[in-house]
Amino acid sequence: MYTKARIAGHPIHPALIAFPVALYTSTVVALIVHAVTGDPFWYRAAMWTNIAGVVMAVVAAIPGAIDLFSLPNRTRARTTGLRHAGFNVLALVLFAISGVILYRNLYGNPGMNGAFKLDDAAPLALTIVGLASTVIAGTLGWTLVQTHHVGVKPTQHGLTRTPEEVDDLDELVVPSASSSSVIIEDERILRH
């Protein structure tokens, strides 16, 4: 299934997902460093990486949704895509809640003594679960590409349908009645 959301033939969603993954990971690391050191710089860094991760996740979700809704119904690829989207939405919600908490703790009303309370507990718990959800979503995304070949333009060899009509590259396997030998020529596999 060749992706609908592409630029110059290259899928957009896989190119964008690196940003929220890196920013979510940075948020967790910054919160852990803040919990250990107590340095407010790391709390502020966690807040900004958290917010940037949420924004980039929303940006990456747009071409991801285009790809998801273009998958044929009642296929393994569609089921995997829905699970992938579900775990990504869960991570997005958890990181959004964490971002709000971090922002309020950093810029909200000061406590009784005029100091802000930079609490790590809730944001750290939310972001760790959110990062775990992102890892699961990434595994499912890898399955979409490697198993179901979503976003990959299939070869034209022996293809009677357009690449957009193909759900899975397994559909392109043409059984050979005469022989099972394989010749590799110019990085293409030809059966004869």
Separation of the first and last Cα atoms: 26 Å
What characteristic shape results from the CA principal axes? elongated
Helix content: 55-70%
- How much strand content do the residues show? 5-15%
SSE class = mainly alpha
Rg over alpha carbons: 22 Å
In the predicted model, the low-confidence regions spanning at least 5 consecutive residues are 172-192
**Total number of β-strand segments?**
4
Q: How many distinct helices?
A: 5
Secondary-structure element order, as H and E?
EEHHHHHEE
Instruction: Give the strand line-up of the largest sheet.
Output: 1-2
3D structure, described in words:
With 192 residues, the chain is mostly helical. It has two domains: 6-146; 157-192, no CATH class. Helices cover 58% and strands 6% of the residues. It is built from five helices and four strands; from the N terminus they run ββαααααββ. The strands form two sheets. Strands 1-2 form a two-stranded antiparallel ribbon. It has a two-stranded antiparallel sheet with strand order 3-4. Helix 2 (18-37) packs antiparallel against helix 3. It is elongated and about 70 Å long. The chain starts with 5 loop residues before the first strand and ends with a strand. Residues 172-192 have low confidence and may be disordered.
